Every structure is written in C-alpha cells, then in structure tokens.
# Entry
Amino acid sequence: MAAYQNDTSSAGVSGFLLNCLVRSPHWRLWLSLPLGLLFLLAMGANTILLITIRMEASLHEPMYYLLSLLSLLDIVLCLTVIPKVLAIFWFDRKSISIFACFLQMFIMNSFLAMESCTFLVMAYDRYVAICHPLRYPSIINDQFVIKAAIFILTRNILLPTPIPILSARLHYCGENVIENCICANMSVSRLSCDDVTVNRLYQFALGWTLLGSDLILIFLSYSLILRAVLRLKAEGAVAKALSTCGSHFILILFFSTILLVFVLTHVAKKKVSPDVPVLLNVLHHVIPADIKQGIQRLLTKEWSRGWGFSSAT
# Structure
C-alpha cells in the first residue's frame, strides 16, 4: 500500500481531513464520554477474555478459540477507529495521512468481513452441536479451528485488498475533506476527479459476496437448527438447545441490523440527517464489541455445562 502513497500525493493532495460530525459540534463532547467509556470497556473485556482463555487449560477447546478470534478482531477494529475519533472530538485532530487513511480502509473492510465469517463458523458450530451431537467431537476439533482460521484470514484479506488499492490509484485534485469520521471507501473516493464506478461496483459486489453470503448461510444454519430443535422430545431438550445458540443468534441480528440501517441511511441520505450514517459507522465499531462480552459470557456458561444432546436425539 505504501507504493501508492507517493502516486496519490503527487496528484495534489498530501493528506485528508476527517470532518467528523461537523454539522453538530456540540455532539462531540456529549458523545466522546460514552464513546470513550465503551472503548475502555470493550478493550478491557476482550483482553480479560483472551487472558482467561490463555491461562485456563480447561478452556483450550475449539469453541473458546473461536471466541478468542472474535475478541482479537474486536480489539483491532476498536484500535483502528475509536482512538482517531476521540482525537477529533477532544483535540480537533482531523488530519490523517494518505497512507494511514488507506490502511484504515483496508483494516475496516478486511476485519469486518473476518468478523462476519467468524459468525458463520460459530453458526456451523451450533449446527453440528445440536443436529449432530454424537459427531461433534470428531468434526469440531483443533484441526477444524486451524482450517477455519486459515479460511477466514485468506478470504477476507485477499478479496477486500483491491478496495484501498482502487481508491489509492485515483487522482485527488484538491478537495481533501472527508465527510465521515473514518476513511470509508466511498467517502474517500467521491473526492476524486476520476470516475469511481469501478470502486462502487467492486464495493457493492464484495459486500454481497462476503457479508451477504455469510448472512444467508448463517440463517440457513439456524433454520436447520430450529427444525432439529422442534423434533427433540426429551424433557428440557428444546430449552437447552435454544439456550446454547440463542445469544449467538441475537448477536448476529444486532450485527446485521446495524449494517442494514447504515446502508438504508445512505440510500435515503436526502431524507435523513447526513450525520446519522456517520454516527452509526462509528458506533458499529465499538458497541458490538461491548455487547458481545455479555453474550460471550452466556455462551461460555452454556458451553461449560457440556452439550448433553446425545440422549435427546
């Protein structure tokens, strides 16, 4: 990505300014306090979770490795976005270098896709645990986690990489104010003097290919889980089956709802305040990480009790 820094700078722009919620400057102090608190809580909770799993030998199992991966992704996303937003709110540090901007763009696109893919793997874990409990130890093992991690990293690094490259190759003729708190692809690309059709099409295709396919497969997994649960006849089996995946499903709904609202506000940007999608984009990188900890504790509690479905199927 560094190879594109000089090429972009020579086009007349040496850096960008993040015009974060400039239309409502009184929001900055009001938002910075809860945002900073959520950031600290998210970072602290994720760090504690990682240390606990690392230090506790009984937690060295596939399902906890998936939780660790999710926590690592949360930490990277929070560190990529929130400190810069807080610097804008507190010190009016709007400037961001070209390299830092495109690096942030790459991390956001890649790690959000990794998070979505991790949800998919966890949904498959729930499917195997409930629909094929006797085969669970042989399917969901350490080798499965390694292969899943390699797939998550490879798919979601290679496919989103063209996004910052396409944006970096554009010519920026003078306007350098990004109407966003972060270096989102289209927020940056629209400042260019060039045609950005390819950027728009690739972003759209990538979103549906990665996030769209993940959500479809996740909901398919839960449809199969629901069908299997309804067939369980043992006393308490239905409640136990639903409790092991209910919190995870709520987390999936929250993740997809935030993205859906963000897309809709962009589509209807003439009818809603332009600060709404900007605010949602910022909160998306910290609120899910914080809420996720409570849900992860519920998952950990259920997993620690064991599956116990073999007698119910």
Observations:
- Confidence is low (pLDDT under 50) at residues 1-11, 287-296, 302-313.
- Residues 197-231 form the longest helix (35 residues).
- The chain is about 70% helix and 5% strand.
